[in-house]
Amino acid sequence: MNSTYLIVMAGGIGSRFWPFSRTNHPKQFHDVLGVGRSMLQVTVDRFAGVCPPENVFVVTNRGYTELVQEHLPALPADQILGEPIGRNTAPCIAYASYRIAQRDPKAIIIVTPADHAVLREEEFRRLMSVAVEAARTNDVLITLGIQPSRPDTGYGYIQYMDEQSLPGGQLHKVKTFTEKPNLELARMFVESGDFLWNSGLFVWRADVIIGAFHQYLGDIAEVFEEGADKLGTPQEENFISQAYSRCRNISIDYGVMEKADNVYVLPADFGWSDVGTWDSLHRIGQQDEHNNVVSGDVLLYDTTGCVIKTPSERLVVVQGLEDYIVAEYDNVLLICKRSEEQRVKEFVADVKARKGVGYN
């Protein structure tokens, strides 16, 4: 276990979860699930027994480093890696991977977003152990694929080959990645039985992912190779500022995983949700007898299928709504049909243009 490291990606804004998730306080720092712990705290808790605390690294925007310290007070400051600007997941993973490889060139690295939910944590840890052991003994890039429960257009899809698997038969070679298909295609994928949702959870050895950067994202690898000796020193912050100005904005999926020929997927079913939208919170939240998910001091009348999240100090009375989102946080109240939640990003853009930055 001492050679297993964790990279927690905690720099996103989560604008689809507006107005709860805001630029100055994104959703990973909120208790979205109503369990008394923020999404970031729950994420790190989840890896207890999989990865020792001294091997946990959190990558976040430099503007959020104090929030990370507040939520994870036991985490040493030098294990919080601050990004000067957002450049998507490939530079984020490169930064943390080079930092870890400097300490332990044969490290096994787990990469996780900070804002996902897992309902069956024991099964999650079991599958993580399977993936870690496979990464330890094979030169492969592993992703966890979630058994789809519906044709959802909000997720990427992974097609795998049953006939090509690693010893033990649990990990299958990936055939294709498809980013967020239309509904008809998503329906075909689910019905075929050989597609999984792309969870954004990855496992690999440090030397294998760095080799993949050299092969598929040579420009990013070159940037970090030049300054690798500055990582973990007082020069790191200045180097990273320069490095990120030279890195393009690209995801690890598009930059590496879709191109590499050594990608394997571990099919998983542990009650996963990316909690990326209000509708996803409705699906995984505790529903009352009328299918409402409620957080706050709320009285409901003739109301069904709603997700309602309001401040506990404000009494909210709702009558006659069906399948709506009612969300209030920090001077913004959103009332929107659940079926129209994909327009939230449009609302945020309009609010920013008309009202200024104080509301986004």
Plain-language structure description:
The chain has eleven helices and 17 strands. The protein is an alpha/beta fold and 360 residues long. Helix 3 packs across helix 6, helix 3 crosses helix 7 (218-226) and helix 6 (206-216) crosses helix 7. The longest helix is centred in the middle third of the chain and has 17 residues, at 121-137. The protein is globular. The model has no long low-confidence stretch (mean pLDDT 92).
Q: What spatial form do the alpha-carbon principal axes imply?
A: globular
Provide the low-confidence segments as ranges. Answer: none
Question: Which percent range describes the beta-strand content?
Answer: 25-35%
In whole angstroms, the N-to-C terminal distance is: 41 Å
Q: For the residues shown, what is the average pLDDT?
A: 92
In sequence order, what are the helices and strands, one letter per element? EHEHEHEEHEEEHEHHHHEEHEEEEEEH
Q: Quickly give the structural class.
A: alpha/beta
| Strand line-up of the largest beta sheet | 6-9-7-8-10
Q: Sketch the major β-sheet.
A: 5 strands, mixed, barrel
| Helix count from the secondary structure assignment | 11
Strand segment tally: 17
What percentage of residues falls in helices of 4 or more residues? 25-40%
Cα Rg: 21 Å
Summary?
With 360 residues, the protein is of the alpha/beta class.
